[in-house]
């Protein structure tokens, strides 16, 4: 296993690396020039090193590497990273210097810009209205949702931008929110485009989440005792961007319909949100059992505004065919009302030309 020196381990940027490296089995020796290091207890052991501009730094560093049999160095400080890199280049010490976090961060933002360009190209292929959105906006949205757990791929997120850009004014309703990745994306896009408030509906309970049509191993996954934690994670992920723009109902989609038609939704975290009563975009990603999907579509699709969108997630799903069966039947029965229909990243997108 790798043995890594983290210097200075006292920096806040060092802690995520320490935790991840230890989770992968690496031995971590922390080091700092400070007499007190708040992260010392997170390391396997800790030593004190001089400042990089003090006499004897190279000798002491060489000694620590030899004493603890360390072969790699992680250095989150730009100045120290440059000094240590020079020592390695000059042959004063022998170790592998892990690339600078600063350079990695720059590369991440360069990648973000390329991802945003790709997403906008796809969105513009869905609707010309997407051309009014700047790549910097999409990049900022990607940057935010990167931190939120979820299974929405970037192609689907891009398609949602195209749909939102061409949607009428109205509510954005999501059935099945999980940690809130797609809800956060929809909130950022809807707020920017002025579409309307976002309402996330999810019981966050095992009993309603088990998909009986799916294989046993998929059913077991939903039977855990983690749903309260996931519900709290949703709130945590949406609060920084959602106050005044998003709310949620912790209940089934069937029970939530009566609350929706009442005209407002209230929660302790997000306050009261006024509901327009017509849906601009309906994202169905709840229980994938055929009966559950059919019920969600039957109850909520009639609330779509003319020109609105319905997105049936996991239309292509390896663990069951509930969404596909419902989607195919809907396409056949409502073909005259449908203006656009296509599949992106396994999700079926349907845009209506008139009342559903």
Short recap of the structure:
The protein is an alpha/beta fold and 356 residues long.
Descriptive tags:
19% strand; Rossmann fold; 14 strands; alpha/beta; five-stranded parallel sheet; 13 helices; seven-stranded mixed sheet; 356 residues
- Tell me the count of domains: 2
What separation lies between the terminal Cα atoms?
60 Å
Biggest β-sheet description: 7 strands, mixed
How many β-strands, per DSSP?
A: 14
* Separate helix tally: 13
Radius of gyration: 25 Å
Mean pLDDT: 93
Estimate the global geometry from the Cα principal axes.
elongated
Overall SS class: alpha/beta
Q: Summarize the helix and strand pattern as letters.
A: EHEEHEHEHHHEHEHHHEHEEEHEHEE
* Beta content: 15-25%
Q: Roughly how much helix do the residues carry, as a percent range? A: 40-55%
CATH architecture of the largest domain: 3-Layer(aba) Sandwich
Overview of this structure, please?
With 356 residues, the chain is an alpha/beta fold. It folds into two domains: 3-98, Rossmann fold (3-Layer(aba) Sandwich); 105-352, Rossmann fold (3-Layer(aba) Sandwich). Helix content is 43%, strand content 19%. It contains 13 helices and 14 strands. The protein has helices at 14-23, 57-67, 78-89, 101-126, 135-145, 154-165, 181-193, 206-209, 216-222, 227-242, 253-261, 290-300, 322-333; strands at 3-6, 27-32, 45-48, 72-74, 96-97, 171-175, 198-201, 246-249, 264-267, 271-274, 279-284, 304-312, 338-344, 347-352. The strands form three sheets. Strands 8-7-6-11-12-14-13 form a seven-stranded mixed beta sheet, with helices on both faces. The protein has a five-stranded parallel beta sheet with strand order 3-2-1-4-5, with helices on both faces. Helix 3 (78-89) links the parallel strand 4 (72-74) and strand 5 (96-97). Helix 5 packs antiparallel against helix 7 (181-193). The longest helix has 26 residues, at 101-126. It is elongated, with a radius of gyration of 25 Å. It starts with a strand and ends with a strand. The model has no long low-confidence stretch (mean pLDDT 93).
């Amino acid at each position: 296993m790798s043995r890594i020196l983290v210097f200075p381990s006292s920096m806040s940027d060092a802690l995520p690396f320490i935790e991840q490296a230890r989770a992968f089995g690496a031995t971590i020796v922390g080091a700092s020039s400070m007499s007190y290091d708040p992260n010392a207890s997170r390391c396997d052991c800790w030593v004190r090193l001089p400042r990089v501009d003090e006499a004897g730094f190279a000798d002491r560093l060489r000694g620590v590497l030899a004493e603890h049999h360390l072969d790699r160095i992680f250095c989150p400080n730009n100045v120290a990273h440059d000094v240590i890199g020079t020592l390695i280049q000059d042959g004063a010490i022998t170790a592998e210097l892990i690339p600078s976090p600063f350079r990695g961060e720059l590369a991440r933002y360069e990648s973000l810009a390329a991802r945003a360009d790709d997403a906008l190209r796809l969105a513009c292929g869905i609707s010309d209205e997407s051309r009014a959105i700047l790549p910097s906006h999409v990049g900022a949205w990607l940057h935010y949702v990167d931190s939120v757990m979820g299974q929405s791929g970037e192609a689907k997120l891009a398609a949602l931008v195209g749909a939102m850009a061409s949607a009428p004014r109205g509510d954005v309703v999501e059935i099945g929110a999980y940690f809130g990745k797609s809800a956060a994306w929809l909130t950022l896009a809807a707020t920017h485009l002025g579409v309307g408030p976002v309402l996330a509906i999810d019981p966050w309970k095992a009993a309603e989440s088990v998909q009986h049509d799916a294989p046993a191993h998929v059913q077991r996954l939903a039977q855990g005792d983690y749903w309260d934690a996931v519900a709290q994670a949703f709130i945590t992920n949406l609060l920084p961007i959602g106050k005044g723009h998003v709310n949620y109902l912790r209940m089934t989609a069937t029970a939530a319909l009566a609350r929706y038609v009442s005209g407002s939704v209230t929660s302790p975290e997000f306050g009261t949100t006024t509901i327009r009563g017509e849906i601009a975009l309906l994202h169905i990603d709840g229980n994938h059992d055929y009966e559950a999907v059919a019920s969600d579509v039957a109850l909520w699709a009639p609330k779509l505004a003319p020109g609105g969108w319905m997105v049936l997630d996991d239309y292509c799903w390896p663990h069951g065919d509930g969404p596909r069966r419902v989607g195919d039947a809907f396409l056949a029965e409502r073909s005259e009302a449908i203006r656009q229909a296509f599949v992106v990243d396994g999700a079926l997108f349907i845009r209506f030309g008139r009342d559903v």
